[in-house]
Amino acid sequence: MMPVETAEEAKKDATYLKALKDLIYQCADDDFIISFRGSEWLGLAPHIEEDVAFSSITQNTMGHAVMFYSLLEELGEGKADALAHERQPDERRNAVYLEKKNGEGSYLGEPYYDWALTVVRNFLYETFKKVKLKAITNSSYQPLANVAEKVLMEQPYHLSHWRIWVEQLLASTEDARSRLEERLEEAWYAFGDVLELGQYATEMEHFQLMIGEDELKELWLEEVKTTIKDLPNGTPKKQLGSGREGEHTADFDQALEVLSEVYVSDENAIW
Amino acid sequence: MYIYSGASQPEESSHVDDQEKYEQFMARIEAGEKIEADDWMPDDYRQALIKLISMHGISEIMGALPEKEWVPKAPTLKRKLGIMAKVQDEMGHGQLLLRVAEDLMRPYGKTRGDLMDDLLSGDLKFHNVFHMPTKTWADAGMVGWLVDGAAIISQTNMLDASYGPYQRALQRICQEEVFHAQHGEAIIMALAEGTEHQRQILQESLNRWWSALLMFFGPKSADTTGSSKQDIMIKYRIRKSSNEELRQAFLDKYLPRVFSLGLTVPDETAHYDEEKGEWVYQQPDWNEFKQIIKNKGPRSKERLRLREVAYENNRWVRQALTSEAVGS
Ligand SMILES: [Fe+2]
Ligand SMILES: [Fe+2]
């Protein structure tokens, strides 16, 4: 397949365009929601150094979401801000596991957030992101491949940040290790939809936008195993639903309500 | 700078350890030399610095809390990125300053953990502005514009401070503060040029913050709240100007901008007196100020509670980090 250099070119083939947009929505929405969950942690991390490092990662990740939304804007999907703030849950393509609340309580009061969930989730997600973006650097859609290259310049630091946390906590106290293992078990029930490519998976592979789902899963698992030796059996299921198909949970409604509160408070405003 | 001159009395050093060392020390700072962490320094200098820098550091960290309320809510992608970067910087300032304070506290055997305990027990104060509520997005802009604006004025006043590690930390902090003020100003400008609703939340926000901003620089003299640390700070070349001079510089820089945006301040008497060459304004309620910094401000309890929950909730993580490896 010939590389597609511009948005105009991509728009010529309706099936290509559909698959392409779905893939970019997945990338954008995943980064957007995980960055939102990260932003709720601000000021609440285990120590100040971590607060600084984590918020830097959160900020970069939001920057990645912006790059992906901008690609969609070029493809005629509307303004990046509208895509981020206005779309309904069933239009969102982020994985359900990523929208799960950080823990009990709210970032505004009594935040009983769980660092074990955050470490496990971010490590698994950043590993996935690395594998996925590497595959996308060979994508037939050049503007997307270029963004993947750019994101991959800083993303490895994010992954190694969370890898170090996993290694440190697993090698520390019994308590820490069992907290992490519990969250890993949980991930094996819910991480499944992160690893999926949604209804256009076949087209994505066919148009060389992306590798196939099976290969993606395999690469991810291999990479995770280099850090965590004792993983739960099999591959992750998706018991919370499939975000790639537009299924979302009440946790997601909470996220949307908060992140668009000001945006929707005045329809005519420029902020 | 996030310290009040006058909240409490610095402990006087009981004696000058060594008259000769003391004279050399004074000669050095008067010649503009910088004192380093391992250098000899008088006790009251060390104590004044610990108080100043730990309060400054902890205020950066507590100062992240009112703004962070708006980080997840920021109304556009650009604003989300801007406010994330800004609050991250503030945490970074806190980190930088607490390290400077830790080095100073070492001879007393105190650590960062003690500072956190002091914060939660109320022994370590944080700046009055960070006890205030943020009710709308306009407050997020107001903090960046005027609170950071006030911080720039008091911090640049110490850019030549005699204590080297603090002075160098301030150099870096002040560079970043310039971006913070720009970030805040951009939010404010968008509101000022915006819809009626936006202008309304902006004016309400300024009304809400006005007296806290006047209080920012601390009382004019010791008579107002009981005692003053201004003198020792100036004697030891840590700062140059008095509280009132700093407040005047702030009013001088910002009131014309406030008025040119068509905004008002909730003080009809506020004006520039050409003859005296200074701004005339109504004193804020300094008794209220005293209450606020005793953690009896509008949001003091909630903000401390956030820190406390985070601290307790992450205890297992800190324990894990300090434990011996048990193998994997
Ligand atoms: Fe700061
Ligand atoms: Fe600042």
Automatic annotation (TrEMBL), chain A:
<protein>
    <submittedName>
        <fullName>Ring-1,2-phenylacetyl-CoA epoxidase subunit PaaC</fullName>
    </submittedName>
</protein>
<dbReference type="InterPro" id="IPR011882">
    <property type="entry name" value="PaaC"/>
</dbReference>
<dbReference type="InterPro" id="IPR009078">
    <property type="entry name" value="Ferritin-like_SF"/>
</dbReference>
<dbReference type="InterPro" id="IPR007814">
    <property type="entry name" value="PaaA_PaaC"/>
</dbReference>
<dbReference type="InterPro" id="IPR012347">
    <property type="entry name" value="Ferritin-like"/>
</dbReference>
<dbReference type="GO" id="GO:0010124">
    <property type="term" value="P:phenylacetate catabolic process"/>
</dbReference>
<dbReference type="Pfam" id="PF05138">
    <property type="entry name" value="PaaA_PaaC"/>
</dbReference>
<dbReference type="GO" id="GO:0005829">
    <property type="term" value="C:cytosol"/>
</dbReference>
<dbReference type="InterPro" id="IPR052703">
    <property type="entry name" value="Aromatic_CoA_ox/epox"/>
</dbReference>
TrEMBL record, chain B:
<protein>
    <submittedName>
        <fullName>Ring-1,2-phenylacetyl-CoA epoxidase subunit PaaA</fullName>
    </submittedName>
</protein>
<dbReference type="Pfam" id="PF05138">
    <property type="entry name" value="PaaA_PaaC"/>
</dbReference>
<dbReference type="InterPro" id="IPR009078">
    <property type="entry name" value="Ferritin-like_SF"/>
</dbReference>
<dbReference type="InterPro" id="IPR012347">
    <property type="entry name" value="Ferritin-like"/>
</dbReference>
<dbReference type="InterPro" id="IPR052703">
    <property type="entry name" value="Aromatic_CoA_ox/epox"/>
</dbReference>
<dbReference type="InterPro" id="IPR007814">
    <property type="entry name" value="PaaA_PaaC"/>
</dbReference>
<dbReference type="GO" id="GO:0005829">
    <property type="term" value="C:cytosol"/>
</dbReference>
<dbReference type="InterPro" id="IPR011881">
    <property type="entry name" value="PaaA"/>
</dbReference>
<dbReference type="GO" id="GO:0010124">
    <property type="term" value="P:phenylacetate catabolic process"/>
</dbReference>
<dbReference type="GO" id="GO:0097266">
    <property type="term" value="F:phenylacetyl-CoA 1,2-epoxidase activity"/>
</dbReference>
